[in-house]
Structure formats: structure tokens, C-alpha cells
Amino acid sequence: MADAASYMSGFGNGFETEALPGALPVGRNSPQKCNYGLYAEQLSGTAFTMPQHANQRSWLYRIRPGVKHAGRFRHVDKGLVRTAPAARDEAPPALGQLRWGPVPTPDLDLSFITGLCTVTTAGDADTRSGMAAHYLFVTRSMRDEYFMNADGELLIVVQQNALRLCTEFGVIEVSPGEICVIPRGVIFRAELIDGPVRGYVCENYGAAFTLPDRGPIGANCLANPRDFLTPVAAYEDREAPSTLIAKWGGELFGADIGHSPLDVVAWHGNYAPYKYDLRRFSPVGALLFDHPDPSIFTVLTAPSETPGTANVDFVIFPDRWMVAENTFRPPWYHRNIMSEFMGLIYGVYDAKPEGFRPGGMSLHNSMLPHGPDEASFEHASNSELKPVKQAGTMAFMFETRFPQRVTRWAAELPTLDAGYVDCWAGLRKRFDPAARDPD
Fold first, then answer.
1. Which of 278, 308, 339 is the last residue of a domain?
2. How many whole angstroms separate alpha carbon 428 and alpha carbon 278?
3. Spatial CA neighbour of 300 closest among 222, 225, 212
């Protein structure tokens, strides 16, 4: 497998790629005999009978069939990984708005698997609804180790340093400001590029992430399909004692195999991993007055059976101009049906300029009020409303219709901000029935 990553562009399109000429059959998916002695195998991400526009599958032409990559499984210690529905004995903190400072990368030997630390779980993985939010530490590359998640797809947000993901479909490299999505069931190995990695992972139990409908916005802006990159075929033909770790039903299982399972020489289809540079997101906003809903910043959405209500939304707050007049520009005070897990990749978040730092996170659960702190309110209420560019910032949200339950690990973190709720303590009563104009 090549060290450098190379890509095809587009989102949800049918791709075809081969690492050896003629490895990809022409005109048929499963010929009686494949070239180079390869095996044909279909990987389906949806039910066979899904409508054509939503059907996801890829054909893989590989050195060994998938059954050779899964030997006799045994239970493996799942460490700090938790899966919904989380046990009630996880001892969550009392109900309220929560915020954590950045969690330092521990001086431990942590791979992508052992470095996954669950912060929240929501819904029920067995019914394929809901999600989990994980904090991620990687201090060493995986060597002859591979991972496959059958419970959901993984949306990986790198916050410090870069990560190389060697997958069945090819190589993806992701740096801070970029994301990578590994579909359910895809095998991969994670390697370091320039030092220990810290980041966030959304494990989506439900329907796969897709682009949101733009509605009245029309054909352009937000995330454009051409900016999503899918890897070209790259394969490993290596025989060495190896281990495949599978996450299934909330548990981890290990199987010993004698070779690399990343042996796909060619593939075609629309079920594949991909990456996206968040700085290519084209934001839209209010050009005259008032504050639009944060849904205009949706990069990807995992739909539910209820139209307009997502299982998970991935939302970002990137660089953008703010120009609305006679308007309170930061996010207003609000309560809503969705539960919001937020992280900060770099820069400053405009509604919380103090206390919310890169590598930090917050949780505002369904129907709990939240909004700008007292300093942000004062500044937004009294500053001159000239056009201002919010620059050098990248915050994000994993937003779900389900309550997010906090794990014991997250509840006991020393970086949990016990005084977070005090950021609103200075919001004084301003009401005066004799004064129509604001003071």
C-alpha cells in the first residue's frame, strides 16, 4: 500500500478505481474468474431493496475473500468505549449544562482503538438509532492491527496533528480542519504522521451521513459534492501475524489472522470512506437583519424516519462575515429539541470567548437553556455593528434528537468545569416598564 494518499472527488457518486490494470471487471460484477486470481465480494451499506437513489454498495476485488479476515473471535477488553443504551450505573453528573476544558494527551501507549474514550451515548445501537461522542487519543500507530465497527460509521475530527487511515479502499490522510468518515463495516488501520493525535469521533448508529437538502438556498453553497475526496485503490499483499478487532453489539472482539486484510486491488461503487476539508464549506447567513437558525451550517446529516429531524447532524461554525444590522449577532438564548455536543478545533468561539478552548467540549442536552455568557451579551448588545469577519476559528457540533447520556469517564474528568453555569450569573435583570428604549 502506498504511503501517500491519492483521491477521487465527489460525494455519493459511483466510483471505480484499480491498482493494477485490468483488475476491475468490465461489464459484470462477478465474472466466473477474476483477473489476477482475485475474489469478487460485495459490501452493502444498505438493505438490498433500498430505493436506487439511497442504495449503497461497493464491489471489491481482493486477494482473499472477507471470510479469511475473520477467524475465531474472542472477547477483548473494551476499555473506555461505551455504546448506547448506556448502563445507568455510569453515574452521570447532575442534570445541567456541561463544559470540559481540553483533556491532555496521556503518556500512555494508545492506538486508535485503545485511545477511544466515550463522552456521551444516545439512542440504541441495536435499533440503529442514535450516536456516541468519543474523545480520541492516538500515541502510537497500529502495527499489524486492524479495526472494523459494525455498530455504526465513524466521523473523525482531528484536533491535533495528522492521522493516516489505511483502509480497504485506499489511504486517507486527515489533518486539523479536515474530517474523515469511515462507513460501517469497513476495515482500517490508523497511523501517526507527525506526532500524537487528539480529536473527536462521532459514532453514528443510524442511516449514513449524507449532504443535507439545501431547500430555498438552491444548488450552491454549504458543502459541495466535488470537495469530498474518496481514496483510489491501494492494496497490501503482506503475510504476517495480525489481529482484527471488531466492534459489534457494544463489545470488542479480536481474531488472529495471518495477513493484512487491506488487500482490495480494485473496487467500484458508492459505499466508501471519504474526507472533507471543512475550510471549503461555503457559509450563508443573514445579509440585512436577524439571526438564522444554526442549521444553515450543516455539513452532513444522518436522516431519521421523521422527515426534517436528523438522527445526527454534523454542524460547523467556520470563518465567516457577520453583517446583519440591528441584530444580536451571536447565537441567541435558546432551548431546542436536539442535544448538542460541541467541540473546538482551533480559534475562539464567538459565544464563549473565555473558557471554551481548542480541544475542549460542551454538552447542552435537549430543552436545557443555553446561549452567550455575560461578557458576550454585553459586547454583542453595545458594540458598533460594522461588518466583522469571524476569522481563524472552527467549532463543530454533533447534534442528535436523542438525549446524550454522560459516561463515568467524562463525569470524572478533572477538566470538567464545575463553575460553567456561573458564566450566566452576571446576566442582570434589565426590565423597566417605564423605559421603552433599551439602556
1. 278
2. 38
3. 212
Strand partners, 146: 244
Is the same domain home to 379 and 290? yes
Overall domain count for the chain: 2
Burial of 220 (0-12, 13-18, 19+ CB in 10 A): exposed
Q: Which pTM value belongs to this model?
A: 0.95
Whether residue 179 contacts residue 156, with contact meaning beta carbons closer than 8 Å, is answered with yes
- Grid cell, residue 248, equals 459489534
Q: Within 13 Å and on the Cβ side, how many CA atoms surround 255? A: 19
114 and 258 housed in the same domain: yes
**Interval 180-202 mean pLDDT:** 98
Q: Annotated catalytic residue: which of 69, 259, 291, 364? A: 291
Rounded Cα distance, 275 and 178, in Å: 7
Taking the CA atoms of 248, 250, 253 and 259 in sequence, report the sign of the dihedral they define. Answer: positive
Q: Within its chain, how far is the Cα of 65 from the centroid?
A: 29
Residues of the domain holding 347: 281-418
pLDDT above 90: percentage of residues in the chain: 81
For residue 364, indicate whether it is catalytic: no
Same domain, 78 and 194: yes
Q: Are 251 and 301 found together in one domain? A: no
Tell me the per-residue pLDDT of 166-176, one tens digit each, with 9 for 90 and over: 999 999 999 99
pLDDT in tens, 226-250: 999 999 999 999 999 999 999 999 9
As beta bridge partners, residue 136 has 116, 199
